[in-house]
Write a structure and sequence with these properties.
Rossmann fold; Tachylectin-2, Chain A; 6-stranded mixed beta sheet; 6 helices; 30 strands; Glucosamine inositolphosphorylceramide transferase 1 N-terminal domain-containing protein; GINT1_N; Glyco_hydro_beta-prop_sf
């Protein structure tokens, strides 16, 4: 496809140059059309970004930094598609990025200063082609938040190039970035940082289990009625990401264990006796890099595990040589991809892998990607629409897929308020080589005095969950 990028003269925001590189990598012919000079960045925002650089000692490139684009073709003649990166002057039929209904570049910053992620849309004419709801991993840092939103803007626009027309676009009036809003944001961020240090505030995760309930948990009111049993608290580590397996008369919970002394996750096992009483956690898999989310399943008479190894930029498959204590690396399924919480399912003869993916600037919470393979060991191929969903509220996997009344369901993390704030139970409405769609049927908050939960799994006898509690002075503030 012949694509014309309409941008302002002079150095460009880095994200626009990266968008052009992405489009070329997808096989499009890209040419530039440079119009009016660049508009200055709002003074209040520019000052805030400079102060953040001093306070947080941030180094390295960011996506708002202005750089000279590499030499490229100047647009001449007709184009199959025009993408407006200038904010005006590209014509009504151009594809453009809109944040909270406004095409103004300041709209993204306004949302971040309000403490929320913006709603992004790729709009062409009066039609919305694609939408995204990016996550903000640290709402107290504007630079980081801008990077995370703009990386998803690149994903959104690149994916919208071939997208069919969707719903109607509803514009909103622009909002300027004011000095008052920037000052309020900085004051709140500094106050939170000081209080966290003075009060020694933190948080810790733990895992719990209870007898399996009927059906799937679509009723938030019933969700917290049956109590979970929690492992004893350990001030030296946390436990999270539980998966549960019934094996030879034993119930085994596999989970992430993160000792605070090392800061590197390992996979541990907890065995429940016949009455559901736990033994101590014991490490069963350790690598030179962080491990978590031990997705465990049976296939072909063996027990398999795919722990998250995004720190190594791999997706790895292990076979149990002696369950649950000994694991052997069977295959590296995917390389050079930062994949979070890989979850696999065999569907109509094809293996599907669900995970979040991210680049150097984006969040790992909000972009769902799919991979398929004819065999568990591969070869695994990315879905052409990746990421198929950008949504902090329902993208990141939170456990194995569920089959219920003929349907296929995902348990996903709701990361709008924070990482792992709650769970979203999602019915898969479409899953094929051209697209993906899901509907959120229920949102489940943790209860029990916790402030978040991000994994739910079950076996024939038990269901398991993790939850996070605030700590103060090294002690759990509310144990639920």
């Amino acid at each position: 496809m012949q694509i014309r990028l309409v941008a302002r003269r002079g150095p460009l925001p880095r994200w626009q140059v990266l968008l052009a590189e992405r489009l070329v990598g997808l096989g499009h012919a890209v040419a530039w059309s440079r119009i009016a000079p660049a508009r200055p960045e709002p003074a209040a925002l520019a000052l805030l970004l400079q102060l953040e650089g001093l306070l947080y000692r941030r180094r390295g490139p960011n996506l708002t930094e202005r750089i000279d684009p590499p030499p490229g073709a100047e647009a001449s003649g007709p184009a199959d598609l025009v993408i407006d990166l200038a904010g005006d002057g590209a014509g009504a039929d151009a594809l453009r990025l809109v944040a909270d209904g406004s095409p103004e570049p300041e709209a993204i910053a306004c949302a971040i200063l309000d403490g929320r992620g913006p709603h992004l849309a790729a709009v062409r004419g009066a039609c919305v082609l694609a939408e995204a709801r990016p996550a903000l991993e640290n709402r107290a840092m504007v630079t980081l938040s801008l990077d995370q939103v703009l990386e998803r803007a690149i994903d959104l626009l690149a994916g919208a190039v071939a997208a069919p027309a969707g719903g109607a676009f509803a514009p909103a009036p622009p909002r300027p970035v004011s000095g008052a809003s920037a000052a309020r944001f900085l004051a709140a961020a500094l106050a939170a940082k000081v209080l966290t240090r003075l009060l020694r505030r933190g948080e810790t995760w733990n895992i719990g289990w209870r007898p399996r309930t009927d059906g799937i948990p679509t009723d938030p009111a019933r969700w917290t009625q049956s109590p979970f049993t929690w492992l004893p608290w350990d001030p030296g580590r946390y436990l999270a990401d539980p998966f549960v397996v019934e094996h030879e008369g034993r119930t085994v919970i596999l989970c992430e264990e993160l000792p605070f002394a090392t800061g590197r996750g390992v996979i541990s096992a907890v065995t429940l006796d016949a009455e559901g009483r736990p033994g101590p956690p014991r490490v069963v898999l350790e690598r030179p890099y962080h491990l978590s989310y031990p997705f465990v399943f049976r296939r072909g008479g063996a027990i398999w595990m795919i722990p998250e190894s995004s720190a190594n930029r791999t997706v790895e498959l292990y076979r149990a040589a002696r369950f649950p204590d000994a694991w052997e690396l069977e295959a590296v399924l995917i390389r050079d991809v930062c994949a979070g919480d890989a979850t696999v399912e065999l569907i109509d003869g094809t293996w599907w892998l669900f995970c979040t993916t991210t680049g150097p600037h984006g969040s790992s919470w909000d972009a769902l990607s799919l991979f398929t393979a004819p065999d568990l060991r591969g070869p695994w191929r990315p879905h052409p629409g990746n990421p198929v969903l950008i949504d902090a509220a329902s993208a990141r996997p939170a456990g194995a897929l569920l089959r219920h009344e003929g349907g296929l369901w995902r348990v996903a993390q709701d990361c709008r308020a924070r990482y792992g704030a709650g769970l979203a139970l999602c019915r898969i409405d479409r899953l094929d080589g051209e697209g993906f769609a899901q509907s959120v049927a229920a949102r489940l908050s943790p209860g029990w005095g916790a402030v978040g939960c991000h994994t739910f799994n079950r076996s024939e006898r038990f269901e398991v969950i993790d939850a996070v509690w605030p700590t103060r002075g090294g002690r759990v503030a509310t144990a639920g």
